Amino acid sequence: MALDFGAGLRMTDRADIINMEIFDYPSTDVICVGQELPFCDNCFDMVCTFAVLEHVDDPFACAREILRVLKPGGLLISGVPFLQPEHGYPSHYYNMTRQGHLKLYQEKVEEVEQFVDGHQHPITSLTWIIREYAAGLAPATREKMLNMSVGDFMRLRYHANPNLDIYRLGKDVELKVASATTVVARKKQLPDTKS
């Protein structure tokens, strides 16, 4: 028996796969959140999760639950994004390096292999980011950008030059496809415990 963790809408039904989701799709067998799976320990021969863990606020808790329900010696197949723009509902919290991906499962798994599937190819990231970036530019600048060669892109400066139109994006698009982001935050005041 296998668990498809965050199955989405499946077009085929298989008796040997439990489709778990947070939405009630026609193919959903069990509706629940990944941090609290309603299954007993060590009950699945295989757990697969594809493009799900970046959308949960605590992927480590989900990974612990996945490992809890996976039988010893069971097979885990887990796919997460590395270089993808923000996307999806309800939120997109994390992208992961291959080391970070394995770290989710701590030392409780033995890696069989890591690979890049067809839809995970680097060209997918490049084209996705370029599409998102172009959509955030003014129409005339977008046209110029789309006519640039790869060599033109390679000659762009590492740091953004605000004097060039190609660097002028709306903040929402800039954050969506950023190389990195910086957070400035203020710690909340502790509640007054004096009576």
Kindly describe this structure.
The chain folds into two domains: about 1-120, Rossmann fold (3-Layer(aba) Sandwich), CATH 3.40.50.150; about 120-175, no CATH class. It contains six helices and five strands. It has helices spanning about 60-70, 100-105, 120-135, 140-145, 150-155, 170-175, and strands at about 1-5, 15-20, 30, 45-50, 70-80. The longest helix has 14 residues, at about 120-135. The chain is globular.
Q: Structural class given helices, strands, pairing?
A: alpha/beta
Work out the oligomeric state of the chains in this entry: single chain
The CATH class assignment of the largest domain is: Alpha Beta
Provide the CATH architecture of the largest domain. 3-Layer(aba) Sandwich
Mean pLDDT: 90
Instruction: Give the CA-based shape.
Output: globular
Query: Gyration radius, to the nearest Å?
Result: 21 Å
Largest sheet: spatial strand order: 3-2-1-4-5
Look at the structure and name the CATH superfamily of the largest domain: Vaccinia Virus protein VP39
Quote the beta fraction: 5-15%
In short:
This protein is α/β, with parallel strands linked by helices. It contains 6 helices and 5 strands, in the order E-E-E-E-H-E-H-H-H-H-H.
Task: Set down the secondary structure blueprint.
Layout: E1 2-5, E2 17-21, E3 30-31, E4 44-50, H1 59-69, E5 70-79, H2 98-104, H3 122-135, H4 139-146, H5 150-154, H6 171-176
Parallel strand pairs: 1-2, 1-4, 2-3, 4-5
Please describe the structure with a list of short key phrases separated by commas or semicolons.
single chain; 195 residues; alpha/beta; Rossmann fold
